[in-house]
Specification:
Helix content is 47%, strand content 12%. It is built from 10 helices and 8 strands. The chain has an 8-stranded mixed sheet with strand order 3-2-1-4-5-6-7-8, with helices on both faces. Bound molecules: NADP nicotinamide-adenine-dinucleotide phosphate and 2-acetamido-2-deoxy-beta-D-glucopyranose (NAG).
Length: 333
């Protein structure tokens, strides 16, 4: 080996060591903030609906709530995959009541089908967890109903679902609505309220679409909690923190996101850890009456100032009503 090669090898080794030390210390710092839900409240007799429970933090939240005795309805788009998870949860918790129902949050026809069938069959709904989500697609994509895919999946479907189920949630109160948003909403600086479907401007990219949809999640909670004043329906948003899940690997053609997913494998939380704030909001007595708050690591924190903008929250609500064509009989405010 020539001297030059040997030097290069040493340099590469030193760089790898520095990167390793950096990652380990980042991981240690990050892991210090993780908090586990301390509530031991039983969920026996309670009915929980959770969207996107076929993987990641939704699945782990479903598992814990089932273990505590709840009847968990896993509302998922991929039935074979979700059924496998439900079987695993039943075996693992000894709770036979976990069940799967078809729901594609990006498709408003599917949302209506699920929600109306639920209303027909069920007598109560104690906890509604809006968790399903995707990272933005590499290229601007639209659903069959001409809605931008990220917005439809992460926000519009959940908006419609909540509206249709709200009467039952009120009837079943004290009840809770939990919206899985993200700290990424902080980067959503220019949500174009008049062009939510991104039809009249260039697609800046998947991150912007995702960040905007997560800002919509929190603005939705802001406005909903306003409408829910005086009721016993809690309604809050959360960020799970950085969690090692499938979400980073599902989007075609986004190498950068996959690399970030690999980084998350090294420093992120496990899905079971990432589910803790959902579990806290679903079970803890401490937050039974909370409304319009944003939680991370089982504690309320401040979100972006924009998320407290009442005018914007109301405008988003009205736009969303138009976009999903909300019918009078679907309104229960
Ligand atoms: N991981 C993180 O670091 C992180 C950080 C901040 C926020 N979040 C949020 O956490 C939530 C859960 O994500 P995750 O990290 O657990 O990712 P995940 O493992 O990919 O889980 C996402 C779930 O949503 C489902 N889903 C996606 N599109 C759907 C649709 N159109 N209809 C119904 N279900 C759909 C997925 O179903 P399939 O199994 O069929 O794909 C899956 O069950 C998301 O809202 C995400 O934005 C995650
Ligand atoms: C979206 O949020 C992420 C943090 O999750 C940030 O790194 C990225 O720069 C943001 N992108 C845009 C376009 O706002």
């Amino acid at each position: 080996m020539t001297v030059t090669w040997r030097i290069l090898l040493y340099v590469a080794g030193a760089l790898a060591a520095v990167a390793g030390i950096y990652l380990m210390s980042a991981r240690r710092r990050f892991r210090k903030s993780i908090k586990w839900c301390t509530s031991k409240a039983s969920m026996k007799g309670k009915v929980v609906v959770i969207t996107g429970a076929s993987s990641g933090i939704g699945k782990e939240a479903a598992r814990v709530l089932a273990r505590r005795g709840a009847r968990v309805v896993m509302a998922c788009r991929n039935l074979p995959k979700a059924n496998k998870m439900a079987e695993e949860i039943k075996k693992n918790t000894g709770n036979d009541l976990a069940e799967v129902q078809l729901l594609d949050t990006s498709d408003m026809i599917s949302v209506r089908k699920f929600a109306n069938a639920f209303l027909e069959k069920e007598k109560r709904l104690d906890v509604l967890i809006l968790n399903a989500g995707i990272a933005g697609p590499a290229r601007l994509s639209f659903t069959g109903q001409a809605q931008e895919l990220t917005l439809a999946t992460n926000h519009l479907g959940h908006f419609l679902l909540t509206n249709i189920l709200l009467g039952l949630l009120k009837k079943s109160s004290p009840s809770r609505i939990i919206v899985v948003a993200s700290s990424a909403h902080c980067f959503a600086k220019d949500l174009d309220i008049n062009d939510l479907n991104n039809k009249n401007r260039p697609y800046v990219g998947p991150n912007e679409a995702y960040n905007n949809s997560k800002l919509c999640n929190i603005l939705f909670v802001e406005q909903l909690s306003h409408y829910l004043q005086g009721t016993d329906v809690a309604c809050n948003a959360l960020s799970p923190g950085l969690v090692d899940t499938e979400i980073f690997f599902k989007t075609e053609g986004l190498m950068s996101l996959k690399l970030f997913g690999l980084f998350t494998k090294l420093v992120g939380q496990t899905a079971a850890e990432g589910a803790q704030t959902i579990i806290h909001l679903a079970t803890s007595e401490e937050v039974a009456g909370a409304k319009g708050e944003f939680f991370r690591y089982c504690e309320p924190i401040v979100s972006l100032p924009t998320t407290y903008d009442q005018g914007l929250a109301k405008k988003l609500w009205e736009k969303s009503e138009d976009m999903v064509d909300l019918k009078p009989e679907e309104k229960h405010l």
